[in-house]
Amino acid sequence: MEPRILSSQKVKPAISKSYGYLPVSNLDRVISSMYPQQFLAFESASWGLKEDVVTALKRTLAEVLVHYYPLAAELKDPEQGMYKILCNGTGAKLTEAYMDAPIKDLDFTFPGRSFARKFLPEPNLVGPVLCPLYVKITRFRCGGLLLGMCYHHQVADFRSFLMFVQAWSKAMRGQEVRVLPSHNRWLLEGRPHPFPFKNHDLEYRVKPKDEVRVPRLPNPVDENPVLSKYFHLNKRTNRQLRRLATADGNYGPFTSSVCVAAFFWRLIMRANGFSREDQVAKLVCSVDGRQRLLDVGVADNYFGNMIGLACSAINIGKLEKAPLSLTAGLIHENMQRVMTSDHFRSLIDWVEAQKPLTVCPNFDMSSEPVMICSSWINAPFYDLDFGLGRRPHFVGCGSMPAGVYNILWLNPSPYGRGNILAEVHLRSDSLSRLENDPEFEPILSSHREFMSEYRPSSKLHSRI
User: What domain of life (predicted)?
Assistant: First the structure.
């Protein structure tokens, strides 16, 4: 069954104003060119006003885009894959759809390609001009609503996107957006006189002049496709992993994110079949730099990209044999290495010094044993109140672009703090090996408990 498309339009800012081209910061230049997807599912939408709920979402989106105007811009004239952001108020693309089925029949824990195609917006990746923000609103027969979104990563990072969604939810409740975004990207320019650089070779490399940055294209037909699946880690399982990762408290303190990442790193490398002991496995984690650059005037409400990478590397043989505490310690050490103001300032200066050449992450996902991890387990998605009568029932991400796999997203759980939803993006054969790995059984056991309450209708595959 397919959702029926009711309308598709551009939603422009409620107040029309052109801001011209937005400066491209040095941290924008090291971000991948892709559209992350996010969705919020509401079991029912009890909108209490005379205005239709979709009409209200369109109206308030237009109001919020006045402040978050880069999301209503045009991405034009790419140079080595970097787009210029023309803030002319063209608008965000919004699609409205209707599904003649209950929303509870959807399996949010296994959002496959079909789920993404039906319920998440599909960005146009091949045109000369790209749109930064796409929104798809799907209403269901039962009164449920699914709000799907995707945004261009060169315009915003996850923290910026979350700020925008929080502002939108406040507008839906009739509240004024008091904390406005800061668009001062010029603060992330390199310093005009030379400073000693730290070593950034582990995380980044300089592209040769003739290497063109290629945009991520739609997913081709693949006999071994990349699948996305959530695994729920309850509080008990998280405590078990933390005990293993800290050797019963003798090491640490390591965060839950570090402990879970260390556990998945070894198992995902094993599931991919990497076995040569001299191969170097890498784990690349994202780090938010907002709290690290307050001294130069970068506010906590900075809108754009403030993401740095922390890379950990270890031989496959050692990763396989080492206790979890050693792996967690390695990740913790490298996270601490990059989580300083000096490191972020050095990175900005170093990227500036490479111009006109560009900088990109120093790994090849298609040929190297690499896993990427991003943790937002404290993101307040389940606190979002759009005035629909209840908070989101489930918040998740969509599928990955072609060629992007071995990804671990750590997300908040609908069951609150201490629980984690770990989303993996793996090739289908690797996902099968992961789920059949005896060491993965504690995660599966925790997930089965979750699914006993969350399991969708058995008619799912025949109807949706």
Answer: Eukaryota
Which whole number is the average pLDDT over 41-53?
Answer: 80
How many structural domains does the chain have? Answer: 2
CA–CA distance, 370 with 268 (Å, rounded to integer): 9
User: Rounded to 10 degrees, what is the CA torsion of 2, 395, 386, 305?
Assistant: -110
Share the mean pLDDT of the chain: 88
Contact indicator for 179, 302 with CB cutoff of 8 Å: no
Given a cut of 50, whether residue 462 has pLDDT beyond it is: no
Query: For helices 235-245 and 324-338, what crossing angle results, to 10°?
Result: 90
For residues 159 and 231, membership in a common domain is answered with: no
Model pLDDT for residues 291-350, shown as the tens digit of each residue: 887 666 777 899 999 999 999 999 999 999 999 999 999 999 999 999 888 888 889 989
344/432 same-domain check: yes
- Domain span at residue 389? 206-215+222-463
Question: Within this chain, do residues 147 and 229 fall inside the same structural domain, yes or no?
Answer: no
Tokens of 274: 């990497």
Are residue 229 and residue 171 in the same domain, yes or no?
A: no
pLDDT tens digits, one per residue of 126-144 = 778 999 999 999 999 988 9
C-alpha gyration radius of the chain? 22
Same domain, 166 and 238: no
Q: Are residues 171 and 211 in the same domain?
A: no
